[in-house]
Specification:
5-stranded mixed sheet; Heat Shock Protein 90; elongated; alpha+beta
Length: about 425
């Protein structure tokens, strides 16, 4: 049972419900879309004339300002028409690039003039004018035929039934033609109002590249923070033992002070890496890159940074040696970073799983191949071991090595220790 609305809010709610019902996809939406084609075609023709006039006005100078303004209006109008087709016809039309999100005014103007989406929107205006003219012609000739049959014919008992049938046929034909026009608009709209194939491919490539960059950032964060925490725990343990030595051993405040200094350095490094990753991710999420470019890359570690990486571990109690064999100066930067990550993850795993045994980090250049190896002897004591990790580090290294065309092996050594070996090709490395 329906009751009359008693308040303004209830009346507004009823009106909204009626509008939403009328705008639903299906025959009501197609009818409204067909009826809206005539005024929209008139607006499209007006925009066409405005664009033509602004182009002509270029010879007077003022057209240089009018052309971008009219093109921006056309793109905005195309966006409105896109939403209309989505709402009334349930056509999935992905939105193209947003020129207004670019940071600088001249960058917006250049992209507005060079974007294929702008000229596709201009083409859609032409299609809109033709569809509107076809709709107007259908309604006009249908109305003339209906009126001629209704008021111009000789009605009597013999002709009434055939005339009514003809009038009904005229209405049916008009509706069929209008439906065909709407279906044609629904078929053309995604091609002119949607994303161009080359833009979709470029967007997919950019999304894939950014996803790969995020995965790399996550791995770098895992390597850096995992190593920093493990090394800091080792140094904190060593500092505690030197400040509370058993069996009347002398205190070693200098060693404890040095260990605390390394803990501070490791913590600063981990915080800087975390801030770097968050900065890049924030730039990705906000979409504020300059002209659609990715954020500026940060300096990646290289083989020259290995000695600094291992010196803090030595001061913390891990006897680790670094051996570099061959000319590694011309090794590509990406391979150097991966080699650094191998040593970083390898020494972190030694601390987690074996404590502080004798360890050797080796980097060997042999022709077009770089071999990175981290070997440790059998653990002599495990009371200072930080504890096992989740196995994500080696899995990440294996994926990185495979992506670079290399191989990774991690297995116990004959001496009872463990060996991590990564072989990386240098030919073709970027």
């Amino acid at each position: 049972m329906s009751t009359f609305p008693s308040s303004a809010d209830e009346i507004a709610a009823r009106l909204r419900a009626v509008v939403v019902t009328a705008l639903r996809p299906g025959w009501p939406g197609r009818v409204l879309y067909a009826l809206a084609s005539v005024p929209i075609a008139a607006l499209s023709l007006a925009l066409y004339l405005a664009l033509f006039g602004s182009v002509v006005a270029v010879i007077y100078g003022v057209g240089l300002l009018l052309v971008p303004l009219v093109l921006a209006t056309i793109r905005g109008f195309a966006g409105f028409d896109r939403e209309l087709a989505r709402t009334l016809l349930a056509v999935d039309i992905p939105a193209g690039e947003r020129v207004r999100h670019l940071p600088r005014f001249m960058a917006k103007v250049r992209r507005l003039l060079a974007s294929a989406a702008t000229w596709r929107a201009v083409g859609w205006l032409g299609a809109r004018v033709l569809l509107g003219a076809a709709t107007l012609a259908t309604l006009f000739f249908g109305s003339v035929g209906f009126a001629a049959l209704g008021w111009g014919a000789d009605w009597n008992a013999l002709t009434a039934l055939p005339l009514l049938a003809l009038m009904g046929a005229v209405v049916v034909v008009v509706l069929i033609v209008l439906d065909l026009i709407v279906r044609l608009a629904a078929a053309v709209a995604p091609r002119l109002l949607g994303t161009a194939p080359e833009q979709a491919i470029a967007a997919l490539q950019q999304s894939t590249r950014r996803l790969a960059d995020r995965n790399k950032l996550a791995r770098d964060l895992h390597d850096t923070i995992g190593h920093a925490l493990t090394a800091s725990l080792l140094q904190a343990t060593a500092a505690r033992r030197t400040l509370t030595p058993p069996d009347d051993r002398p205190l070693q405040p200098d060693f404890a002070r040095q260990a605390l200094q390394h803990i501070e350095t490791n913590t600063r490094t981990a915080l800087a890496e975390l801030d770097r990753v968050l900065t890049v991710l924030r730039a990705y999420e906000s979409g504020a890159e300059d002209g659609g470019r990715d954020p500026a890359p940060f300096a990646a570690p290289s083989l020259d940074d290995l000695e600094d990486l291992l010196s803090g571990l030595r001061d913390g109690g891990l006897p680790v040696a670094l051996v570099v064999d061959g000319d590694v100066d011309d090794v590509p930067a990406g391979v150097q970073e991966l080699a650094y990550r191998v040593v970083q993850e390898g020494t972190t795993n030694v601390l987690r799983h074996a404590g502080c045994p004798l360890t050797v980090a080796q980097v060997v250049r042999s022709g077009d191949t770089l071999v990175v190896r981290v070997c440790n002897e059998r653990a002599s004591q495990l009371d200072s071991r930080p504890g096992p990790g989740g196995g994500r580090g080696l899995a990440g290294l294996r994926e990185r090595a495979a992506a670079a065309g290399g191989t990774l092996s991690a297995e116990p050594s004959p001496s009872g220790g463990f060996e991590l070996c990564v072989t990386l090709p240098l030919s073709g490395a970027a």
